[in-house]
Amino acid sequence: MDKLTALLAGLLFGAGITLSGMVNPMKVQNFMDIFGSWDPTLLFVMAAALAVTYAGYQLVLKAPRPRFALAFIIPSLQGIDERLIGGAVVFGLGWGLSGFCPGPAIASLVFGYWPSVLFVVAMAVGMMLARHLFLGTDETKSGG
Amino acid sequence: MDQLDGHSFATAFTPLSGLTGGILIGLSAVLLMGGLGRVAGVSGIFGALLGRWTAGSTWRVLFIIGLLAGTFLTSRLGGFDSDTMHFPGNPLTTVLGGLLVGLGTMLGSGCTSGHGICGIARLSVRSIVSTAVFMFFAVATVYMLRHVIGA
Q1: Nearest to B40, CA basis, from A11, A122, A135
Q2: Would you say residue A141 lies in a domain?
Q3: For A93-104, how does the pLDDT look when each residue is reduced to its tens digit (9 = 90+)?
């Protein structure tokens, strides 16, 4: 059941970013173009996703443990540090430049357009660089 | 589809499919937490797969397979027309964007899904700050691209 749950969660996630049009990087970049051809759709996607996740987390986190695993793995890092801020700045620059964040970029691979492939390969290289240059570990501490 | 360097295309505001898609993303996050006790953060899930194979790799691979299948099926069933896709910039900005997104999400421990949805839904201060920062810099970047450099 744990395997089926992971597959189903991925399926829902893919359906969501595709139906909402977020898999199209031009639509996402237009969301950021507040002073130009603004497309506010992403705001509605985020609001709906947040509302459902907030309500759903309240429910499922009441249980002593997840249905098919031993414990809830919640990111434990606390406090605002340079890594958090610096990472967000760099991510924001790349997201604005390309219109792609990790979820939609990976999802868009199914359409077979070469910019998707180029982006995902470069993203993987960036992640491995970050790990070797700054984190000095193969373990990811990432929550998202 | 093509990369028409420097050109941008208006896209239609689609609040209803936006809300519906958002609900599906939320359900995914709740299912993954309730079922496996995990955060539905794509940069974390994908990034962990770039290292050695561990016990936690199986669910992550299955999530990514589901993500691809969900995208494929949704477009096949008429929920999205991939012919309407356009990729901003040129091959150079695409590669640079990918590098920055990879570096930034790994350093900052998360992206739009992990911080922007799952983290904020837990009212995590780190996630709220991160999301405000990356949103601001994304908007500033597009402003520079489209209204300063490209003006």
Answers
A1: A11
A2: no
A3: 999 999 999 999
